Amino acid sequence: MIQQVPHTPPYDQTPFGGAQTRNWKDLLYAFNDQLSKGPIWLYDTPGQLGLIGFPFNALLNWSMSTPAGLVAFHRPNVNSHLRNILTAYGDFLTSPASAAVLNSSSTGWLSPKALEAIVSTACQPSTVTDTHVEVDTSPRFHHIFISNPQHPTHGFLSWDAFITRRFQPGIRPIASPSDDGMIVNACESTPVALSRGVKLHAEFWVKGQPYSLMRILGGDQLGVDTDEGRQALDQIILFEGGTIYQGFLGALSYHRWHAPVAGVVEKVRKIEGTYFAGCPGLAFTSRGGMEDGEEGKLDPSAPDGSQRYLCQVGTRALVYIRARDTRLGTVVFVAVGMAEVSSCEVTVREGDVVEKGQEIGMFHYGGSTHCLIFEPGVRLKFIEAAERGNGSTKGQNLPVNGYLAEIV
């Protein structure tokens, strides 16, 4: 896969502007070096923009979408070793040493440019709505997020503490908290797709990424020779013909998840999957394959172009919520870990009663993607921005806990 990366620009450099590795030893040396460093602030080029906070993704970015890379990153043994590497990296990112990147230098996450970008992301039109919070025309980071501007690292003791920061009270009010028939946005995210009548099984085509409920909900990994396996399979079948809404979380966004509806947590499940796999259709060029020297249109911030596909192969967490409003039936929240952001932490347990807008988990270390799955027969009216989702990860964030849809 390394050999299949073209030598011509832009593939002669990583999306961060560093030298592209050309053999596996150099790649492993680069991995080892990154294990003791936090992600630095880089936001000057399109490649940096798409991969900010994803240093391992940047090292593998071009090789991910080569024919060999698309095979390699689906292999269970490769993902097992990557899991070990990223677990060690996660241990560092939760340590005090990782807070070294929380500084005000040009590559620090507390630099004026970095803070301005984070605040701007949080303050897109109609996303800061509480009139009781002092947010003027030039809001500051500490106005939006719980932090201490007098502290050298704003009070964050690690990189992970910074990336999982919380909003100030009142910044993200819950839409119609007493109306159980209204669904709120579970993550601060950009709408990617809205699909109705989703199939239980769907085949992947060269350039298509159809949703397959059996894959998303892990039915392809269930054994049907036990009562537990059969019951789990029956529960998945209940969603055939239902609706899926998907949204993308960028690295600059808020990374905690909130309950889209009020109800009881029926089931929590973690599915181990891939980390750097992409949709097979991304490997093709206008004339043949990568081996002919042609420059393919590879995603400078892969796997952004594989959003739908990642819901079915990536490491993910499932939270089934039996809604208090019986017209909604059971709603499934699916958190999908992309690249090194694959530690999906669920903070609720089976049997817990959750209120709409209540925190239920988080992504550590950076941005990712998520889905909401609704049963067939549940007629929902979504906001226009959700209806327009066209697969792009670029666009305006919808505020977490904001109005997303309601029962018709």
TrEMBL record:
Keywords: Decarboxylase, Lyase. InterPro entries: PS_Dcarbxylase (IPR003817), PsiD-like (IPR022237). One of its GO terms (biological process) is phosphatidylethanolamine biosynthetic process. It comes from the Eukaryota. The keyword Acetylation does not apply. The keyword Manganese does not apply. Residues 1-117 form the L-tryptophan decarboxylase PsiD-like domain. One of its GO terms (molecular function) is phosphatidylserine decarboxylase activity. GO terms for cellular component: mitochondrion. PANTHER family: PHOSPHATIDYLSERINE DECARBOXYLASE (PTHR10067), PHOSPHATIDYLSERINE DECARBOXYLASE FAMILY PROTEIN (AFU_ORTHOLOGUE AFUA_7G01730) (PTHR10067:SF9). This is Phosphatidylserine decarboxylase-domain-containing protein.
